Amino acid sequence: MKTRLLSITAAVALMMGAQAAYANLELAKKSGCLACHSVDHKVVGPAWKDVAAKYKGDAGAREALIKKVHTGGKGNWTAVTGGVPMPPYSPRVSDENIETLVDFVLGL
Which terminus in the chain has less CB density within 10 A, N or C? Predict the structure, then answer.
């Protein structure tokens, strides 16, 4: 019985995680992020899994990436982008949504 309860709990957690991931991808699509990014492969900008790997363990990464999405910029991924800059997304995308998207990317 205990094993079965753990299995049900794990299944619910996976479904909730999948729902959150779907919601974050829909937010990314609505915000225009998927025009240049993908979760697992380079489009124009780097794959988000590569971004997550680059900043893993970096305590200042969240704030730096939030700022980068707000203001745009170039130079951090020139080898990947060929120098194509990232445009600013604020105020077109709300601060709350930018934070949600950065958290999603860093959580990959």
Answer: N
